[in-house]
Write a structure and sequence with these properties.
The protein is an alpha+beta fold and 416 residues long. It is built from eleven helices and 23 strands. A hairpin with a 2-residue loop joins strand 17 (296-301) and strand 18. The structure holds flavin-adenine dinucleotide.
Amino acid sequence: MTHDVIVLGAGMVGTSAALQLTEKGRRVALIDRRGIGEETSFGNAGVIEREGLVPVGIPRDIVRLFRYALNLAPEANYHVGFLPKIAPWLWKLFEASDKAGIEAFARATDALSRFAIVEHRRLAAAANVSDQFRETGWLRVYRTPKGLAGESDLHELADRFGIEHRLLDRDALHAFEPDLARILHAGVFWPETQTVAWPEAVTKAYGDRFEALGGQFSRGDARSLRRVDERWFVTTETGAVSAPTVVVALGPWSNDLLDRFDLSFPFAVKRGYHMHFAAERGARLARPIVDVEMGYCLTPMAKGYRLTTGVEFAHRDADPTPRQLEQLKPIARDLFPLGAELDPEPWLGRRPALPDGLPIIGPAPGVPNMWLDFGHGHLGFTLGPISGRLIAEGIVGEPTLVDLTPFRAERFGGQR
Ligand SMILES: Cc1cc2nc3c(=O)[nH]c(=O)nc-3n(C[C@H](O)[C@H](O)[C@H](O)COP(=O)(O)OP(=O)(O)OC[C@H]3O[C@@H](n4cnc5c(N)ncnc54)[C@H](O)[C@@H]3O)c2cc1C
């Protein structure tokens, strides 16, 4: 089976790239070892974020640092035995969390996220899945004045980049979400952000649209990729596929393949968990909330209220240790009357993260006709469709809607 492009990895990022390329008339093979959208893109908070302008970095204030060091902060957890391995990466993250790093991240992310919602909605309309989208905005809520003040960088950046947001005092917050306990100091409402009722359904619908346009999805191991006579070949369950161009969109597994081509990027995996809950006494939330100081998100989903945790630093493939989830259950229940747990066990996902917080989108250094699209960290569900558009434009030789310079792989060096 011959194609124009092979896309490896069928999360939100790879599926969007495959669909965008197919829309441009390219014959595309999309390959994953699982079904479409069944890894990290399955269990996220479903938020398509307009205002994600501050990287999730290492705090610079000493009290929070100390809480992190003692593994006491519910928003971050780590496996102690893994610390020596991850320490150099954490140091890079710390360095990138200074003022200049935040500014660079904000500029680059704003350039993408200003098109993220439009691009999602365009794909969703064509894929007949617009009914999954909710235009309710979302709320970042603060338990204390200090918590609110701690996000002043975000509010200042949002003002500068023209992103609408509204400060709500305790009474206004209560009017917005009457079933939240009156223990909060304030909230900020972000009306431009949209959310989906079931992230997996959206990724799968984009996959269905890709197939309806003639794209071919197959199961196979991306690590079988090889280059023969200027063509790429991959072995799948239905035979070998080949194409002159390949896109690597394997999220947190990208280095597993790229090592073989002497490319390796400073990846860490920020693990995160989710659990669904019923609500007691008919309580409801109209939109997701982030309990900022506690570092979790609560999203009304098709299946119940999905609580998603902050970051766990551990080996990518280590067994689940949902300690944060246990810590957060009583904290979340204080805020909203969560009832019975609806999943037999917590879901574990792996955010693919680079130390400057930005993804890599563009050609692979030193490897002909290989394109890279991964490392979207906390924003991969948001940024998948716009990243896919940029990759597609690059591959077909059109000018890209957004300047790809901040996302170039070369910022981490070239081939070894
Ligand atoms: C708890 C949590 C909450 C989050 N909330 C949000 C949110 O609200 N909004 C947001 O924008 N982002 C959110 N994210 C981040 C977002 O989910 C990720 O950035 C995004 O899903 C990454 O997409 P991806 O396509 O790069 O990776 P994935 O979805 O992981 O896709 C990678 C694919 O590669 C495949 N693969 C791996 N190895 C191989 C191989 N050898 N051969 C073949 N296939 C292979 C996998 O099976 C997988 O399907 C959240 C993440 C977590 C963990």
